[in-house]
Request: fold
Amino acid sequence: MTSTDSGKHSLPPSVVDALRCSVCSNPVDLVDRTVRCENGHSFDLARHGYVNLLHAKTPAGTADTPDMVAARVEFLDGGLYTPLATEIARSVMPFAGDGLVVDAGAGTGYYLARALDAAPEATGLALDVSAVALRRAARAHPRLGAAVWNLWEPWPVKSVSASVVLNVFAPRNGAEFRRVLRDDGALVVATPNPAHLSELAALVDMVKVDDRKEERLDATLSAFFELEGRQDVTREVSMTPEQVRQVVRMGPSAHHLHREDRQGLLARIVEPVAVTTSFTVSVYRPAPR
Reply:
């Protein structure tokens, strides 16, 4: 069951076992809320329970901001993306077992927590470049650990340590997905479809989804994975004016709200809006090494 209590959070032992020092790649231990390796490199756990393994600044505009995270938490709590979370959990469950589910680009941990609810013996590792988002993720589930990391860099995660790699609307580093994934594991990827939130484009100039997104996704991963199946998750929903503002502010369009009076356009929405939510959940199996 998911948990958001405010107690003192730490890293599950199986997550510590899977982590590697981000400086020298040696195994690490957790001692007195400090992750350290035998070479003396150390990383303190934040009071929220996550560990920041980065040793370089994050480029501006790449991490979720506090406003984006707050909007996402409020929007997801409204339940409009529950069908997507349910399909992701259904796809993860057959492969998770008692292993590790690594969520690459986990954000607040919303989808990983629901996958862990469906896989009661599994443990989760949330990786994200946003420390603000991981404050939430570290408290999203009692079997979840969180680490700040740039997904485009080689991950501080042991090879062949994950039963499942989960990727929801996040950067896709196919080489690292394959390296950390067991040969009998699975990669589960969730992407928006071109119809997703299309009605809002007439109200606010949002970042649009590439019509060839699935084709590009398969091409990007083809050197490391083979597609096993995919499921469409499309619903027509009614969004309140506040939910419209939240869904715009929680995604990539939030970085451009200062342009062309988009804030003003959002403020003028005062009635519920009929909106399409449309996603594809794809399951890939690892190609032979």
Remarks:
- The chain has nine helices and eleven strands.
